[in-house]
Amino acid sequence: MTSIPHDTAGEPDPLRTLGLASLRRRTSMKWRTYAEDVLPLWVAEMDVPLAGAVARALTDALALGDTGYPAGTGYAEALAGFAAKRWNWDGIAVDRTAIVPDVMLGVVEMLRLVTGPGDPVIVNPPVYPPFYQFVTHMDRRVVEAPLGPGLRLDLDLLADTFRTAAAGGGRAAFLLCSPHNPSGTVHTAAELAAVAEAAERYGVRVVADEIHAPLAAPGAAFVPYLSVPGAERGLSLMSASKGWNLAGLKAALALAGPEAAADLARLPEEVSHGPSHFGVIAHTAALNDGTGWLDALLTGLAANRRLLTDLLAEHLPAVRACPAEATFLAWLDCRDLGLGDDPAQTFLDRGRVALSSGLPFGTGGAGHARLNLATSPEILTEAVRRMAAAVGAAAGSGGP
Question: Using one digit for the tens of pLDDT, what is the confidence trace for 330-382?
């Protein structure tokens, strides 16, 4: 897979559009969880205005009173077109897709199709905390296969974990995070083909969470799991939610490989009643007409990654940031700061900056924090300045 050139002509950087006063008027989780003196760089919401194409589609729907139930295949067709242009992948067959309320609820439904109660679901920590929460809540058993050096897939460990899980009886599944959250790693075609080969060898079903796929950085090549040889029995979840900041407009798509079509056909009809009609309209417009806005965002995120590197070097040189190839997240290794297992708590208590604690991300999360880069350069700069002050205050008090 190769990524297409990015085109930001005519689109301003959406990360530089909204000021702090405007952002604090928002009523969503990011801006209402903490007190007003806290800079929130934690949950995966972006500090951006709505893409113009999305706003127009929603405004038109409101004018028509088009507020009923979702119908049709427009979302799937839009995703297929986006995938063909963006990733040179024409493998999305509309008749092997299903609309689901969102990616994590879609993950749950896919796991219900291919596993049973008590069966193992393999994950690669440090990884998105809801993987643990949703899997255990549905009475499946989480099995860890931690990431290896460079926070990449440890293919030998993963194959061994597949073998052990399959030998224990039942039906094992692998919940793949691609691109990976929190590291921002973009898995290569060779890595994904190795995953598919091992999964087939040991009878493990792969369910891929690919929600961050549109957010591969300029120059990075996202590879859809279902595009690699051997992934014919795989299942994937995709959405415009993260790429265009549409978490409040619920919709996602489940995709099946050619040999998983029968599994997807068993999806209960009521699952398709969960997505929002407005969500489907918004996501479809984003994929069809919002790519210029997305490219401007990706350019802004690349600049923020460089800015964060410079800010850490200046103010917090002991912190190591994983070089992300995708997402709008930064995984910070803070172990050399002496702040204990949960440095995010110190940054909040002493610096009034909210990051995501690394602890819920599983093995490898202690001593780490996840920072949301999708904000203005001014807010990011002030946040790192406050974090440095928090470290100084903690050192002066003799503890975190």
Answer: 999 999 999 999 999 999 999 999 999 999 999 999 999 999 999 999 999 99
| Integer angstrom CA distances of residue 331 from 47, 180, 216, 302 | 19, 11, 16, 15
Contacts 24+ apart (CB under 8 A), 316-319: 316/384, 316/387, 316/388, 316/391
Q: If DSSP states are collapsed to H, E and C, what string results for the chain?
A: CCCCCCCCCCCCCHHHCCCHHHHCCCCCHHHHCCCCCCEECCCCCCCCCCCHHHHHHHHHHHHHCCCCCCCCCHHHHHHHHHHHHHHCCCCCCHHHEEEECCHHHHHHHHHHHHCCCCCEEEECCCCCCHHHHHHHHCCCEEEECCCCHHHCCCHHHHHHHHHHHHHCCCCCEEEEECCCCCCCCCCCHHHHHHHHHHHHHHCCEEEEECCCHHHECCCCCCCCHHHCCCCCCCEEEECCHHHHCCCCCCCEEEEECHHHHHHHHCCCHHHHHCCCHHHHHHHHHHHHHCHHHHHHHHHHHHHHHHHHHHHHHHHCCCCEECCCCECCEEEEECHHHCCCCCHHHHHHHHHCEECEECHHHCCCCCCEEEEECCCCHHHHHHHHHHHHHHHHHHHHHCCC
Query: What's the pLDDT score for residue 136?
Result: 97
Answer yes or no: are the C-beta atoms of 147 and 153 closer than 8 Å.
yes
| Average pLDDT for the chain | 96
Classify 139 in phi/psi space as left (phi over 0), alpha (psi -120 to 50) or beta: left
Span 51-74, pLDDT tens digits = 999 999 999 999 999 999 999 999
Q: For residue 400, what pLDDT is reported?
A: 73
pLDDT at 9 over 50: yes
Whether 1 has a pLDDT exceeding 70, the answer reads: no
pTM (predicted TM-score) = 0.95
Mean pLDDT of 23-48: 98
Burial 21-40 (b: 16+ CB within 10 A, else e): eebeeeeeebbeeeeeebbb
121 in Cβ contact with 204 (< 8 Å)? no
